[in-house]
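**Sequence with structure:**
===
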Amino acid sequence: MKVLLVHPQDLPHRWTSQKWDRIIDLSWASAETYSRWEKELQCPVASLDKYSELERDLDLVRDITARGLEFVDDKNINWWEFFILWYVEPIQLVSCLQRFAASLHPQDQLFITRPCFEAEALSHIRSAPIHFLSKKRAIRKLQHYVRELWSLTPRDLVQVFWDKYDERFQVRSRFTKKKANAAKPVVLIPSAYVNASRTGLNFVANMPNPESLLVTTRANGEIRGHFRNVQSASLAGYCFGQDNQAEQRKILNRWERLKTDLANDSRISVVSALGLLESFPRFLRRGLAIRDAWINVIESEPIRAVLSCDNNPDTLLPVLLAKNKGIPTVSIHHGALDWRHRFLPVHADAIVAKGKMEEDHLARICEISKDKIKVGVPAKMLPNAVPRKVSGNADSIVFFSEAYEPNRVRGEEMYKDVMPHLANLAAQHQRKLIIKLHPFESLRKRKALLNKILSPEQMRVTHVVSGALTADLLERTWFGVTILSTVAMECQAANVPCFVCSWLEYPHHEYGDQFRRFGVGYPLQSSNEIKNIPQMLEHIPPASIADLWQTTSSSELQQLFLRSEKSETVVPR
């Protein structure tokens, strides 16, 4: 049997001259896409995700994490736990490839469209040769980098440069403003990402003492909008170059012993052989430098509490450091749900759920004690409801896009399934089609993609926007469409009908199941249903937000930030 593996940057149509018995997509696309491919190529087509087993993979992640319980520094921070957080998805991918390899017969011939990580992993898993249909060429690599650089804004390019060449802030610390020098006690909001910053500032703004200090690890976390009672600073301004060599040596000695154990474990040996874990020493050196900068923040500023809005290792560090000092710590995720709680301990004293849906996810799926979960957010965090029967400004269909490609999803195929139908509908009803981008998406890339798949007539009604979701955009929205986005919750709160493309729901840690369980959005089962949305709008009942959002009083919020007895870290099963 001849089996073809298709790289995410390739399409199988280039190799139709050859006869294939089976095609495996190393990315993910809809059943409609694979049905088209099957007709063209006359063989079964499936995604590699067919071999995914989330529960088994998470058990493996937990087991690998448990191997490094003694990788603890002088501040009681477990660096192995943080390190594995970066490698959960590669570990899942290797496990998936192992199950795929087990489905092959020894005589099966394996072909892959280009050299890649998956091919290297399969060469360690399976002794049979792998045939490449194209070679690794320097010109292709150069073209890839040129495309990526072209898609970035100047601000993004600067951030990429600093991430690569100044990961410990040694250069930036020389010309960054030294400290914020807050005059009043503040809530520290650590952030690496603009949505996390916005969530934190909106949460604190409704409290009796709303003074906050936003400290960002990357420029992407900076907020340009107007927020009262907030001071901002870059973490680079707190890097003073402390000596942590003794801690490094202690932990790296333990790392050398663990490497041998991992290489001898059949479940993990492929991950070890691929060198995925070899970057731990570099990760540790960088992490200790970031940790020391956060120590300087906590010791030099009047921090009365810490509010974490993302499970990013760089911004979890101040939660652990503050907790060691008895400073209250609170966690709230900037999105609808965070699947990482299934294997990552909750270090904060309390974790805030925006409503019953998130509370259920944290308690039932992530198995976090309900005593640790506090339900309710400030009213300011909810979008203002739009009076649908009164407002005449709803002149737009809005598609809320996502950064699909980093999740190994074929973004172009997703757009092909939806955009032509939405553009035709917008033109038919004299409306605009607005594509609202996620902060991680490139405006240039998405515009180029739309120009590729839409006709000139369709492009005339199509507009692409980036930036924060505004009340003005929601007021202009006739209805929204999305695939798997937190925005569906925000639309529901704003009384804006939002339709979810269920047939395009890509594997994303069971978020879709939770959305359906609590009635988030109105499901569409195929692209053919898009044309019927105007008729659906006449009959759909108003959406309820009772299970998605709950508000709480400022006095109750204040209680979260008051000094209390030191709580324990909650570790997932």
About this structure: The first helix runs from residue 31 to 41. The two ends are 42 Å apart (CA to CA). The first strand starts at residue 2 and ends at 6.
